[in-house]
Amino acid sequence: MAIDVGTHKVCVVIGSVGLAGGVEVLGVGYQASSGLRKGSVVNIHEAFPVIRRAVRQAEEMAETHIDEAMVGVTGRHVKSQNLMTVWEHRDPDVPVSALGLEEVLEQSYMIPIETGQTLLHAIPRSYVLDDQPRIRYPVGMFAQTMQVETHLITGNQSQVSNLVDAVERAGVKVQSLVLEPIASSEAVTTADERELGCVLVDVGGGTSDLAIFKDGSIWHTAVIPIGGDNFTTDLSIGLKTPVQNAETFKVTLGHALPDQVREDDTYQLPYSGSDDMHQVSRRHAAQLLYERAAELVRYTALHIKQANLPAPPAAGVILTGGASTLSGLLDVASERLPGPVRIGYPQGLSGRTEALRGPQFATVTGILMWAARHRKPKQWHEEGLTGLRKLFKRLAASKEPEFILRHPQEFSHNGFHGEAVKANT
User: What is the pTM for the complete model shown?
Assistant: First the structure.
């Protein structure tokens, strides 16, 4: 089961994995959100009943009961940094083993992080064996030293706990968490795009999630404090009309390119706090939307620069999320961002996908695909490392570790630096 607890909607999808690894959708649940703001829980007593209704809706469609789920996490509290750890191989005449690599990666989770933050992901990007960079998988190769480039993603411990508690009060155990832009990339980007280099921008209601990929690996993540609500609020203030009327106007008549709207094109809207109507200029509204769209694009360009990519992302930018369909937003992004720009629609699922075809469902479908790709036997989740892994642990305990940590330090691809590339700006 995948759960996306968003600012505007809670979406739940139940799926199954076939023998060939394909994911089939069995059930979908969808409810308007309550108790959430900017991707974070602000009223748990309002949030968990909505989650419970969405879960039950999905279970009724799937005709099954699910007691655990993978849950997406986002919000301005999410931070990221890149870390380089340098390891010395005890016996360089012996190739790197799978167990030795597993020991190294497990210790990535023990790196000290900022007080009040909890680790969400420690994702290895690539390896350097002695002086040979960009090694994808070092097992079976010889080296005296191994450098591991890891992308660390953390979230505010209290806000993450509030999300987990809201879901578990709804009767579902949280199996694991996944950062939402990483999940969305599973559904709307291709392996070739991630290899060439691409930027995913998931424009949600409260925030926009960003993930940058290069050489098939995650390169940079961020949460941009601009979402569809900001566009709506700008219209509400600028046009002096209630928020709900501004939202309807944005969806039906909004355009982010003023020169695409006639100067004499007007529309009747009520004043805020009054039933009196007044005429508003669609071109004036378009100017308001353009300014906010340009700000979103500037944030995106800033993060592309901060990512220190060796070259511009050849596969360009993929916009997704419910607010990405605003007319003209694609054009504003195409004018200012490198490479091609397109709207990303969920792909790669079978079954009952009729209700999941829009970009607003990129996150929940991506969570389901991420869960399928990273699934583990149930007993591993409930009882920890068992079977073969437990045997490996006993063997490892009887001998010295294969690698010795020399020193960790934060880095960028322009060289080693003492300051991390942070997700929040």
Answer: 0.86
